[in-house]
Amino acid sequence: MKFVAALAFAAVLATGAPALAQDPWVAHTAEVAAVDADVRAPLEAYLRGHATGSQDQFRAAFHPDAELWGTRGGTLIRMTGEEYVGRASGSPAADEAQRRRWIESIDVAGDTAVAKIVLDYPTVRFTDWMTLMRVDGRWLIVNKAFLAEPKG
User: Fold this and answer.
1) For residue 75, what pLDDT is reported?
2) 66 contacts 143 by C-beta, under 8 angstroms
3) Is 133's pLDDT higher than 60?
4) With 50 as the cut, is the pLDDT of residue 68 above it?
5) What is the mean pLDDT of residues 107-126?
6) Using a CB cutoff of 8 Å and minimum separation of 24, what contacts does 124-127 make?
7) Are 13 and 30 in contact (CB under 8 A)?
8) Could you give the 3-state DSSP secondary structure of residue 94?
9) Which domains, and CATH codes, for the chain?
10) The whole model's pTM is what?
């Protein structure tokens, strides 16, 4: 199994395509994998929340006062972090096996970071831009801006 993971990572270096990390729902480029694990932790919890439908994973990702803004179908959407967490079903989506998601990039400066995440689903592709802050020694998502692009 470790050999397969090493081969996947080597493929990233050779092709620039995302490689799977420890969890099948978290893909990283070599640059993202080099970012401190504490910074990546809330982003990976966010991705696990999408993969599992777990409200606990989303709560581990977002600051309690986080806000989310985005557009879907030309409509502006705004909600609190807790409203977003409350939408989690508690179980994986029926089409989970066909969904792909990864951290595209992370930029860190001091106690602030910005990350781009892609959620590539059968009928829609989401691009999420996350603002993270280190709060009381712990990295959390404080803001999410997103774009939903329907496929087909």
Assistant:
1) 93
2) yes
3) yes
4) yes
5) 96
6) 124/148, 124/149, 124/150, 124/151, 125/149, 125/151
7) yes
8) coil
9) 36-150 (3.10.450.50)
10) 0.82
Which two tokens mark 120?
């590539």
Q: Evaluate whether 145 touches 79 at the Cβ level (below 8 Å).
A: no
Q: State the Cα–Cα distance between residues 46 and 23, nearest whole angstrom.
A: 13
Beta bridge partners of 107: 114
> Which amino acid, 116?
K
Given a contact cutoff of 8 angstroms between Cβ atoms, the answer to whether 31 and 25 are in contact is no
* 3-class secondary-structure state, position 39: helix
The neighbouring-strand residues paired with 80 are: 67
List of residues 6+ apart from 121 with CB closer than 8 A = 95, 98, 99, 100
Closest CA to 96 of 152, 40, 151, 47: 47
Percentages helix, strand, coil for the chain (3-state, rounded to 5) are 35, 45, 25
| φ, ψ dihedrals at 101, nearest 5° | -150, 145
